[in-house]
Write a structure and sequence with these properties.
424 residues, 81% helix
Length: 424
């Protein structure tokens, strides 16, 4: 691995630990202010709205900007932003609207950071498929270990010291990440594409995804998955308290169980891809996620609920290594920001619907109803996208993208897209 990858890995690890602290503390902060499922849904959905409003345009901007600079500025801004809710918590002025506003602005920063990081990694690793898979496995594994395994219990523990403490911890992690990212080697600046308008370039990136059945299938899975997972996440703290009988620390441990599975899934993703083929492996992991959420809905106690979340996390961990690595391998460098942001936008735009859907189902019916609905959505999505991301289509796209050392191909004649489109 290039030396710069170690710094990028460290930066994302520290930042993910801070995110995990906030992930464990934020639902409990919101729960301390209200028991209304719809109010909780507002906070959950707010962080995903930037992708709905600015997703594709953000990708077009990343394809114009210096990607390393975009990352460190985004993290430095998020560090400063977290001082606002921390001060409000210290002064006992915290509210649901403030939490929602901060979640929205953090989401804007996350949009630019995540898109730039996704586009920067292939440049750093020379677009080598094996290196990309190894790198994504390490990044996903440590992200899961820190944001899911260590972060949530730490967030719950820090919350006992004061409501501002978890937020300040996340701010420090963002600041440290910004400093490390700024020290990374510069990536080649994107090649200018004539004098097209920003909107036209954004539309070209979105069109590239929608015209390629493989890329569309890779984008649809997390989109439908986010509807399901946000429906679960919105009511999970309430479900844990009312149906499983666990408190704040137990809720952190429940999230840790999911992260433990995610760590395992990220670790075995490459093995599954080699053994089953990437397409079949993605179908299997998606099926596992749906069955695991079904088990969570039916779980009679916290132990079985934790086991179900661990299995779900394993499926998600493997998916989040295989899918992005494949996309980074087959997409041309000059389109990477827009393709990544379009795919992520589809996923994140679906999330607010999932949050409100989960809140509505819990209010209108029962706290377990969003979980059963989420399991049904995940299994239906698996059936629909199975042929779009099958082994045959994946292998054709990899063969078409193989001559990566040659001159960059124009969009209209890119064989990765044309070869995939010709498959039955």
């Amino acid at each position: 691995m290039p030396a710069g990858f170690g710094r990028l890995w460290t930066a994302q690890t520290v930042s993910s630990l801070g995110d995990g602290v906030t992930h464990g503390a934020l639902p409990l902060l919101a729960l301390s202010l209200t028991r209304d499922p719809m109010a909780l849904a507002v906070v959950t959905a707010a962080g995903t709205l930037p992708w709905l409003l600015f997703g594709v345009l953000g990708g077009a901007l990343v394809d114009r900007w210096d990607r390393r600079r975009t990352m460190w500025v985004a993290d430095a801004t998020r560090a400063a932003l977290l001082a606002i809710p921390a001060a409000a918590a210290a002064l006992d002025m915290l509210s649901i609207p403030l939490l929602a506003a901060v979640a929205f602005l953090l989401g804007v920063g996350g949009l630019f950071f995540d898109t730039a990081a996704t586009a920067y990694l292939p440049d750093l690793l020379g677009r080598d498929p094996a290196l990309l898979e190894r790198a994504n496995s390490r990044l996903r594994g440590t992200q899961t270990a820190t944001s899911g395994f260590a972060g949530p219990p730490l967030g719950s523990a820090l919350l006992t010291l004061g409501r501002a403490v978890p937020l300040l911890a996340d701010a420090v992690s963002f600041a440290f990440s910004a400093l490390l990212v700024r020290s990374l080697p510069a990536a080649p600046l994107p090649v200018p594409e004539s004098r097209e308008s920003l909107l036209r370039q954004a539309r070209a990136g979105a069109s590239y995804v929608f015209r390629d059945r493989l890329l569309l299938g890779l984008a649809l899975r997390p989109a439908v998955g986010n509807v399901a997972f946000l429906a679960v996440e919105t009511v999970l703290a309430l479900f844990a308290r009312e149906r499983l009988g666990i408190g704040a620390f137990g809720f952190g441990l429940l999230l840790t169980a999911e992260a433990t599975g995610g760590l395992l899934g990220a670790g075995i993703a490459s093995f599954l891809g080699r053994r089953l083929g990437i397409g079949t492996a993605l179908t299997c992991t998606a099926s596992i996620e749906g069955l695991a959420i079904l088990g969570l809905a039916a779980a009679p106690n916290a132990y079985l609920a934790g086991l179900a979340l661990a299995v779900c996390g394993a499926g998600m961990g493997a998916t989040m290594v295989l899918g992005p690595s494949l996309r980074q391998t087959i997409v041309p460098a000059h389109l990477m920001g827009r393709v990544a942001s379009t795919s992520r936008m589809l996923a994140m735009c679906a999330a607010p619907f999932g949050a409100f859907f989960g809140g509505w189902l819990a209010t209108a019916y029962d706290i377990r109803t969003p979980l059963y609905a989420a399991a049904g959505l995940l299994l239906a999505m698996t059936a629909v996208t199975a042929t779009m991301t099958g082994n045959r289509r994946v292998e054709a796209a990899l063969r078409a993208a193989a001559p990566a050392d040659g001159p960059e191909r124009p969009e209209s004649a890119d064989p990765a897209r044309e070869g995939a489109a010709e498959l039955p």
